[in-house]
Amino acid sequence: MNDRWLDQDAASAIERWGDVHGKEFALRLYTARLIGSDPSLVLHGGGNVSLKGRTQTILGDVIDTIFVKGSGGDLATIDSTGMPGLDLSRLRRFSSLTSLSDEDMTLAVRSCLLDPSSVTPSIETFVHAIVPHAYVDHSHADAVLAVTNHANGRALSLEAMGERVAVIDYVRPGFELALAVAAAIEAHPEVVGFVLLHHGLITFGPDARTSYSRHVQLVGACEKLVASRITTGKPSESCGAGKSPAASSSVDTDVADERVVQAAPILRGLLARPTGDEDQPYDRPVLEWRGGAEILALSNGDSARELATGGPLTGDHLIRTKPHMMYVADPNWCDDDALRRQLTDAVDAFRTDYESYVRRHGDLPEPCDTAPRVVLLPGAGLLAWGSTKRAACIAADIAEHTLTTKARAAALGDYTPLSEEHLFDMEFRSQQQEKLAAAPAGVLAGQVVIISGAAGAIGSSVAEVCAEAGAHVALSDVDEERLSSVTKRLAQRFGDDVVMGVVADVTDEASVRVAYERTVRHFGGVDVIVPNAGVAHVAAVGELAVSDFRRVMEINATGYLLLMQQGIAVLKRQGLGGSIVINASKNVFGPGKDFGAYSASKAAAHQLGKVAAIELAVDQIRVNMINADAIFGDERTPSGLWASVGPKRAKVRGISEAELPEYYRGRNLLHARVTGRHVGNAVVFFASNATPTTGATLPVDGGVVDAFPR
What we know:
The protein is an alpha/beta fold. The chain is elongated.
């Protein structure tokens, strides 16, 4: 555990935030970020910090003040808005009470806010208020939890950290913990920190550096104890002399890659939550997969089941991971049907066990998500699921730290989790549930869309509109440079967790298969397939070279077939239905002179879609077509197709190339400029199942009479 304080960075923090509440507040934010940016200390909204000082009110009164991290805020990125100020004297008056319900505690804390519009302060606000020191730091450090989560956690904690700390038995976080801390302060005024069994570490000091340095030193002491037991081979009751559970076995990462592709779509279908809405029948989860060497070794080790089902490191993690992970013993990777049965049985058993756990301690809420959030699969690694990729990543981060920390804790003896009663209490506390982000918005929330030709004018716009509708998007294109540019642009807007790019040649079956494999490993599956990649060629039928005709057909027709075929396999594997939206063309019904290759290829793709609609309806997979007229793109993403055929099409029309956009606008009934976003809107309409439609063709052309469907 390294002390990462740097004087120059501290000075920069003062320069950045010193005008808000002074130098001390700026340094509070600086060390808060040091703690928050170290995942071995806190993860995703965990931990909390505070600062006590003096503040002048709007009436001119100078009062004792405490600034506390807002509930669920991220220490790694915290700024002044994430540290609301409270009237410390008023807050401390509540310590005279002997109990306080969660609801009353929240009201009490909010009644002390200097700014009523501030975020709600941490659940541990009363703990921070009772500690008499100016700076207080609280983390859920992995190393500390590795030491404390044992039947003899008190003795191990004192062995690691000595008399510098006082050890407090697990107490319900919040007001009850504050009372326990008050008693510990009175009994041990000389200590520099408190060890909270099954919870974490609190340190304090008169200044930011002292409190932070004490925290680092104490966590480091715990790391040294664990490392010494592993190194010396001191007997461990659970794993033998100094043996790490990770040492039992390892798995080839390439094999794990293949197995995730095999298992993830099945699991996605099993974990999707039925909604009862015929038009939107499922809430679909998104995957984050972890298959590093250590996780693969742990998942395949002798202690894998124990690690997966042995409880979390701390109750703060439950809202992300549930009380334990789902573990599948000996997956049958050689028999796909057998694997599906194993996964089905495991999910069913988890749901039943989880529902029983909830009912043992309270009422089953409606709706209740009884599916596992984390799955440990021997031979494949760790698969975490969430309503979004970000939620899945949070669960995966916590689960990965949980597994590796528990593996190290084994060197100290039997790992002992919190009691089931305490776990339930923390999982369903209103303050904890409020930390969860609101349900993802958008008609395509939770859905994964794959688009070919996504670096072009139409494909990039379709990707953008789908992301706006809440989808996760896989952009595929053969042009690596353009694809990288579009992917980067969309990721800057929607986030790296929402958008991914994958280079693929739609005419190459293996290349398309790899694109789907990468998408499945990244998101867990696919819901919407948009065959869009296309080229054109201008030549009269009598002069059309066979090689040019074959090239256009290969990309525009065969390419669509391959993208559909590989995608259909994934859709069927999930069993959640799905949508295929084919970007055909106005030329299907209204072909143009000297455009035989393009018109024939689009007509082939269109007919292919109609046949697929007939065949796939039994699987609730809808197939629809979009017939758009000329789309030229813009300066940001110009149309590659029109760049190649524009001069010849203009010549056929007897106009200049610059006049083409206005020519096409003028020929439709609405005199509309058709854009890629219009195609994207049509894709979202079909993919959202706004109407129970399959086998349909939607013109997106402003009204071209010659191309009216017939």
